[in-house]
Amino acid sequence: MIKYTSISSIQEFLVKEKRRGKTVGFVPTMGFLHEGHLTLAQQARRENDIVVMSIFVNPLQFGPNEDFESYPRNPERDAELARSAGVDVLFLPEADEMYSGSSIKMHVTERTDVLCGSKREGHFDGVVTVVSKLFNIVGPDNAYFGLKDAQQVAVIEGLVNDLNFPVNIVRVPTVREDDGLAKSSRNVYLSELERMEAPVLNKSLQDAERLIREGEADPGRIISFIQDRISAETSGTIDYIEIYSYPELTAIDKLQGEFIIALAVKFDKARLIDNIIIKAAQEEIHHV
Ligand code: AMP
Q: In terms of pTM, does the model score above 0.90?
């Protein structure tokens, strides 16, 4: 595995490899790697000649009162894990390297007025800025994104479509702990009690899906059901529980077609998100 911190060096290397006909799979991350990230890398390994992973805690996507400073970091351990997952090239730029100029500002106008977008002002502007830069630096054929951050996937698909990036976006299902908790770098900030409570987020989504499968079609009743479960069974504070069409993220008044139930819950030192995407065809409902 080769490590790069400079944009020109990694670009030079990858341009040469692509001229030789190699395909490139790309996994952008903020590091503190866990099995979720590694699943993305392993899938990239199977589907491409060269696998590039970036580790960059992007200051632009954090709000002033968010956890940029305290975001967990462990570059040595990350490098070992990336290597073991089959990553060929690890890109670890410093913020100065990534943001040397400031003549362009990107602003996302769709799919961001709901869910995390409405709670984290400027977050997705920061995400599309860094992802655009990384796509230009790496020039991937395939880029892998986790559906744990389903709104991010929807926004990136909009970005790629609007700006004609020649890259295929691969949606990867959420990787979970045995008890159903979505793997996240932020899970380390849960107290012992909160860690025991946290699987209720996923359980309530699973139970909601069961209710929908049994015929419940009213979004409001599903939201109340999840709200009651999480309030009764965790010490967290609900940030949002919302249902939209997916990936358009527009309001729906009946649970049909492809839709997402997404939630965010604030615990003492960690804000957790989770979601379920359901595709409802007349009689049949199944996971994506
Ligand atoms: P992050 O380092 O949190 O920015 O995540 C980097 C990538 O890994 C994003 O595409 C995430 O959606 C994805 N990811 C993070 N956690 C998981 C998970 N539990 N399952 C699947 N993908 C994940």
A: yes
